[in-house]
Structure formats: C-alpha cells, structure tokens
Amino acid sequence: MNAIVVRNLTKYFTPSKKEKKKGRARNPSLESRKQGNNSIIRAVDHIDFEVKNGEIFGFLGPNGAGKTTTIRMLTGILKPTNGEILIFGQNFWNNPIKAKQIMGHVPEEANVYMDLTGLENLSFIGELYGISKKERISRAEQLLKKFELFEKRHLKSKKYSKGMKQRLLLCMALMSNPKILFLDEPTSGLDVQSSIIIKKLIKDYNKNGMTIFMTTHDMDVANEMCDRIAIINRGKLIGLDTPENLKKLKQEYQAVDFYFTKEAKESELENLSSVKEVRKIRDYYHIIVHDLNDGICEIIEYIKSKNLKVKKINTYEPHLEEVFLKMVNGGDDY
Amino acid sequence: MIIKDNEEIFSEELKSERFFIQVKRSFAIAKKDLKIYYNKGPVVIQGFLFPLILFFAFTVGRNIIPIYLISGLMAMVMFMTSTSIGPVVFPWETRSKTLERLIACPISIKTILLGNIWSSFIFGCVFSIVPLLLGILFFGLWASINILIIILGIIVASLAFSSFSLILSVPPTDMPANTMILTILIKFPILLLTPIFMPIHAAPYGIVSPLTYYTDIINVGLGESSAFGPHGLLLDFCILILFGLGFTFLAFVLHGKTLQKRFRG
Ligand SMILES: Nc1ncnc2c1ncn2[C@@H]1O[C@H](COP(=O)(O)OP(=O)(O)OP(=O)(O)O)[C@@H](O)[C@H]1O
Ligand SMILES: [Mg+2]
User: Fold this and answer.
1) A233 within domain boundaries
2) Does any ligand 1 atom lie closer than 6 A to the CB of residue B260?
C-alpha cells in the first residue's frame, strides 16, 4: 500500500505587488520559471510520485527547487494550484483534518512557543491531536528523555539552544505517533553531533514502521538516509532513484583541480587513460577522472615526466546542480 | 507495520473533523493564548493603563453619578481588553514562525479563530471584575444591583467584541505593530462615539456604536432603566449577539482567504 500518492501536483505563485515592484527574483532559477508579463512562479510543476508505506523517501534538490512548497502542500499548509494528493488512499483535500491527524511535520523554518516550557509545548500539540491528558504527559516525558531534554522540561523554550529547539520540534512532530513524518531539511544548520543523533532516531522510528518523507539539498544525507530519492529541480521531478545509482552518478563526476607552476598541455592530459575530460579555467586545470585514485596517480606520473611542479591540488565534490544537469542533458552542458 | 486496508488507518483515530472535537481543541488554543499573552504589552496597556488614563481624562472635574462612572469604566475596560489580543495573534504567530506548525495540526483555521475568541473572552471577563468590585465596594451600588443581568452582559459583550477584534488581524502582515495601528484607528472612534460617563439620551449618535448597548445593559444592571424603552434590554442583547455572530462569520471567511498569503517562500 502506498502511504502517499501524488498526481499532477502543481503550485504557481503570483508575486505580490511589492515583489513585482522590486522587479528582482529572489533566485536566478526563478527567471526561467516566470511566465510572460504576469510573471507566475511555477514553484512546483506537475509532479507525480508515490511513497511506499514504511520507507524513507527523500526529496532532493538545490535551493529554490520546490521542496518546501511540495512538503507544505502535502501537510495542508498550502493549497495546490492543481493536482491530487492521496494519503493512504484518501484524498487529502477532501478532508484535510482527517489526513493531518495521522501526520507529523517539522517545517523548515518552524519554531516552538518561546513563552511555553518544553513540556507545555508538547502537551499543547498533544491536545490538538486529541490525546488524553494522562497519555500526553507520559508520551511527552518519554520523548523528552529520548531526545535528552528531560532535565530542561520545565524551562521556558526561549532559554533553549538552537539544537535543543530543533530536537523539541521533532518531539512535537512525534507526539501524535504519526503514521507519516514530514521533515523539511531536518539536519541543516545543526552541528555534526546533533545531526548524527537526529539521523539515528529518525532511522529508529522508521524501523518501527513510520513512513518518513524528508527533503534535503545534501546528496550525502539523502544517500545515507533514504530508501528512494526523488530529484526535483526548478519545480520538475527529473529522476527517481535508489541511493546506489545516485552514488554511481556522483562518482562519474569525480574531478581534481590542479594548479601548476608552468603551463601544461591539455591534450596530453586528456590522453591519459583514467582522465575523462580536461578544462583549463583561469590558472588551473579542472580534470574529470573515471576513478579518483587511479586518476591522481597517473597525473602525478605525468607531472614527474614533464618536470612540472604542483602549486595546489583540490579534489572536487560535484555539486548537486551538476549531477542534475548531467541527468537532464546527458552531461554535455556542464 | 502491516496495514490491511485504509479504513484501519483512519478509523482508530478520533473522528477529529467533528464539530465538538474541534471546539474542544479550540480550548487548547485558548489555553495557549492565555499563557502567552497574559503579561504581554497589548493586554496590560489596553486592559489597565488605557482605561485608567481615560477614566481620569473623562471624569476629573465633572460631576458624574456613580452608576455612569462604573458603567463607563466597565465599558471601556471591556472594549479595550476583549479586543486587545485578537489583532496581534496572527501577525505574532506568523512572525515567530509557529503558525505553520499550528496549521499542520489536525485543526482548521476556524478552530484557531475560535480559540482566539475564547482567550479574548476570558481576558474581557476577568478584567471586568475590577471595576465592578470597585462599584460595589466604594460606591455602595450593591443595593440596586442585578447581578444576573451584569454577568450575562459581560459574557455576551466579551464574546461579541472578541470576534470583532479578529477582523483587525485579517491583513496578512507579520508585524503586530501594523495591525495595532489599524486597531487604534478603528477602536478609538468607536469608544469616542459611545456615550460613557453620561446618560445615553445625551448623545443620540451613540446608537451607531455597539459599545453603547453594553453600556445600557450595565446601566440597567446597576439600577437605571434602559435608554431604549421597555424592551431596551432585549434589544441590547440581540444587537450584541448579532454583532458577534456577524463578525465571527466574517472572520472565518476573511481569514480563510488571507491565510495562504502568510506563508512566503
Ligand atoms: N509563498 C510564496 N510566494 C512566492 N514565491 C514563492 C513562495 N514560496 C516559494 N516561492 C518560490 O518558489 C520557489 C520554490 O521555493 P521552495 O521554498 O519550495 O524551494 P526549496 O526547494 O525548499 O528551496 P530551499 O532549499 O532554499 O529551501 C522559489 O523560487 C521561491 O522563491
Ligand atoms: Mg526549502
């Protein structure tokens, strides 16, 4: 059974008068999505996908791709311009309250109530989900213990650190023991330690049967966490894949930047067996290799033989956008 | 988790879309509002400071009979407090980024608005006790008082003005100050049009202000006769109830329309 089915989901925004006056899009990819002179922003543009019950489904895309807009439509915050959302077979917008009852959500830029304590925040959310007082308190205490906030449960949330607030938000989303948990960039802006804790707990909940829908712009997070990953760019879905395939794709894009003291010959570098492509950019050579290790060894050999000296080497993590472009254009338009 | 059919997923849950369950959840919203706003600027200033200042501005040097003194003070306190938080809740929640979380919960915008009405209602009632006690203790008004009329009046007026105040937060701004300005521009004329601290006949234009009818109820409760004839009291209540229902309905419709604009990318 599918937890979520999305058909033809679309969201267009018409910019407010103020934004029109500014005449400047908040991000460059926007220009291309604007339509004519009434400048409609196609934030999400006719997308289809399914999320299976019990999986961790990743929604991967660069800034402004439409991830938050999608998650907001799935959680009843934004009304879609068009399209259909089915939650366990039921049309979301026919009865949003019923659907929301089985969901939990950590919005991208959400916050807790600063004037309430940790426990009060949780109890309040529990009440909105119709959980009895006794059950609320016991669930809240369990969660606070699990997320290491129990000691501070009677402290007003304005005295919490950023990481603690993030954890409290996650607790709030878990209060109702949801069937589907929505997470918008759950680890962004957190230190390594906190993000490891959160990732582990998310996986634990998933093992116990919770379906997870998460967005991220970080390929590594997506690969590490998700069973399947949908890739969204400029409002359109451009791929749906497993982490393995995505990793392969990424490896195909391994590159090294070499800074030499003298000019080298591009054609000679390109003839090396493990080198795929060479481009001279200002004072360095951007070399795309089939395999990072073999590539570097071979290039070093070449350097020795030509008496070149290396000033600096950077290995190069491909950007998401580049992998996307490769998927869309077959890599020609790098 | 093995799920046999979709009924199982939803049926174990409460039928949370039902009316009375939503009303229950609106109490949770009200409780939250009370906890957050009881010591915040708008409530303290409008429920306490404004009435105090205006009270002296209006009454010093004038010879006013105790009934009008108390009913005037009560009208002012009622109007100011029950409309103090309605205009700021939505901009404040938008700004502090709690609104998105709230909307994702299994409640509707109407539930949130209803919760805001309850909390303003409680502020209105609680703050009204002070001038009432003042009248009873210091002006000896207990002799002629009809406490039932006064309590009913407080309840009805408090609900009516609470729902009215929600209209003031319809513009989708995230600056509480913006709605405060709008609020003052609308609230003060209403207050000034109301014949407080004087007989209602003395100011015929007073009939345009809803607050006049509450003042009349309190006057009657304190032993005066209604300014609107033998069925005046009934008229007062009817007008306030219609006023409240009308604005509740309007708030439901208008907030439903502007809600989406509060979520910018
Ligand atoms: N309420 C809105 N009004 C107008 N434009 C919007 C609104 N919300 C989003 N947009 C635009 O729609 C596009 C998609 O935005 P969205 O927030 O969904 O992207 P995202 O994938 O979540 O990006 P990020 O990684 O930065 O969070 C952006 O160009 C954004 O400017
Ligand atoms: Mg986003």
Assistant:
1) yes
2) no
